[in-house]
Amino acid sequence: MITVYTDDHLLRNVRTELHGGLLVPPHECPERAQFVLDRVKSVALGGVIAPQRHGLAPVLRVHDAGFVEFLGRAWKDWSAAGNRGEAIPDCWPARRMAQRRPESITGQLGYYAMAGETSIGPGTWEAAQAAADVALTAAGLLADGSRGAFALCRPPGHHAAHDLYGGYCFLNNAAIAAQSLRDRGATRVAMLDVDFHHGNGTQDIFYERDDVLFVSLHGDPREAFPYFSGYADEIGTGRGAGFNLNLPLPSGTPFAAWSAAMQIGLSHIQNFAADALVVSLGVDTYEADPISFFKLRSADFTSYGQMIGKLGLPTLFVLEGGYAVADIGVNVVNVLTGFEGG
Hints:
The longest helix has 20 residues, at about 125-145. The chain has helices at about 30-40, 65-80, 105-110, 125-145, 175-185, 200-205, 255-270, 300-310, 325-340; strands at about 1-5, 15-20, 20-25, 50, 150, 190-195, 210-220, 245-250, 275-280, 315-320. It starts with a strand and ends with a helix. Helices cover about 35% and strands about 15% of the residues. It has a single domain (about 1-65, about 130-340), classed as Histone deacetylase domain (Arginase, Chain A). It is built from nine helices and ten strands. It is α/β, with parallel strands linked by helices. Helix 1 packs across helix 9 (about 325-340) and helix 8 (about 300-310) packs parallel to helix 9.
C-alpha cells in the first residue's frame, strides 16, 4: 500500500488549545504524523510518496468559497489587528442572532467556527492545503487502479463542514477525496468514519446527496464532542434521505459491541454497491486515548482492518484523530495491515 505524506504538515505547530477551561498544548500535535510515518516504514507497508499540488478547485467542490477565502487570510488579518496570541473565537452567531458575516476578523472567527478549542496560527492554512493535496493524490492512486492507499493527513478534516472549521479540522480531506473520486468517474462512493468523534463535517457536506453514502461509528453525542451532531435519527434529507447512517455508542464500549455496530455499517456499504470506499481513519477509539471513552485495544485495529478488506472495494484511508500519541503509529498501521491481509 502506498502512503502519501508531506513534511508540510509541520507548518501547523500551534501552541494553544482550549481544554478543560485552560489553554494547554494541543492534543493534535506534529508528533502524531511522525509516529505514524515511522511505523509505516518500520513494517515496510509500502512506498511513501509526496503529494502533487492540486490547487483550490477540488477544495471548492465541497467547501464554500467565502469560507476558503477566510481560512487563507485568517492568520494575517488576526495578526494585523494587533492580537498577540493565536486566533481563537470568542463569540458565535447563536440561536436568534443574526447569521451575517462580520467585517471584524474576531467576528469572522466566530462566524466560521463550529467549536472554540481550535486555534489558528502561522502555517495553519498552508498545512491544511497540503493535507488536502495528500488526500487528493492518494485518491488518484485508487482512480488509477490501486486496491488501497493511505493519505497520512495532518491536520485532520472530518469536522470541517461546508463552511465551518473546528475540532482541529479546517478542510475536509476525506470529503474532498470522495468528491474527486466522483469527478474521476466513480458512480457511487461510500464513506466510513471510524473516528471516536462524529464526522459532523462530512455529514454536513453530503447530507442531501444519494451518490455518497456516509456511515459513522462514534461516541454518543449526548456525552461526546461534537454534541450537536451524530444522533441516530439524522438519516439525510431530500435525495439524501436514507444515505446517512449514524451508529452512536455509549461510554466504555468494548470491541465486541463496537465491531457488531461496524458490521451493520459494512452491510449498508455493501448494499449501497459503491465503486470505492473512503475511510476516515481515526484511532481515538483506543482504550488509552486521553479525550475519548471507547475500549479498543491495539489488536482490535487489525481485526477491523480485516473486516474492511473483506468488502473488496478500492479503499482510501485518510488519517483523522488519535491522541494517545505514543501508540498512534501501531494502531493506524494495524488497520492498514489488517486490510492488506483481509
